[in-house]
């Protein structure tokens, strides 16, 4: 039915206007659903790994080459979003991404932390949901830690490591990322 690989028992619902590269993989480790909206573009080498929770991608959203989407407690992505190549979107602990969000190349959005071998027992495991509100721009090579909420119209400059939640209309930079109160990019 589809020109790309689907492994495992799960439902896939793709709008007829979506464009999906032939080497995309959707892997179900447990039953779930992947829904891709109208006019979405899913680029070469993109992989969805579903271990619970559904993945919903809003209309007009683009995933560039080799993005990785992990779903444990679910991934919700709004309309008109853009994800640069090699980005990671981790919904192990749940992730909600609003409309008009742009995530630059090589960025990582994490909703869990883990250390140790799962077979022998993890020495550390935690998961907390991530929320990225509307019109956020993570310029590139940004990292978002689990449990973080990023307010509407926030811009995180290249290489920002976001470990704490921030309010709307904030510009962030650095490792760890801090607010730059004298900077502003969005105009009313």
Mean of all residue-level pLDDT scores = 94
Tell me the number of strands.
26
Q: State the low-pLDDT regions, or none.
A: none
As a percent range, the share of strand residues is 35-45%
Helix vs. strand class: mainly beta
Shape call: globular
The strand order across the widest sheet is 3-6-9-12-15-20-23-25-26
The end-to-end span amounts to 46 Å
Taken in chain order, the helices and strands follow as EEEEEEEEEEEEEEEEEEEEEEEEEE
The helical percent reads under 10%
Largest sheet: 9 strands, mixed
Radius of gyration: 16 Å
Number of helices: 0
Structure description:
- The chain starts with a strand and ends in a 9-residue tail after the last strand.
- It is mainly β.
- It has no helices and 26 strands.
- The strands form 4 sheets. The protein has a 9-stranded mixed β-sheet, with no helix packed on it. It has an 8-stranded parallel β-sheet with strand order 1-4-7-10-13-16-21-24, with no helix packed on it.
Short structural description:
The chain is an all-beta fold. Helix content is 0%, strand content 39%.
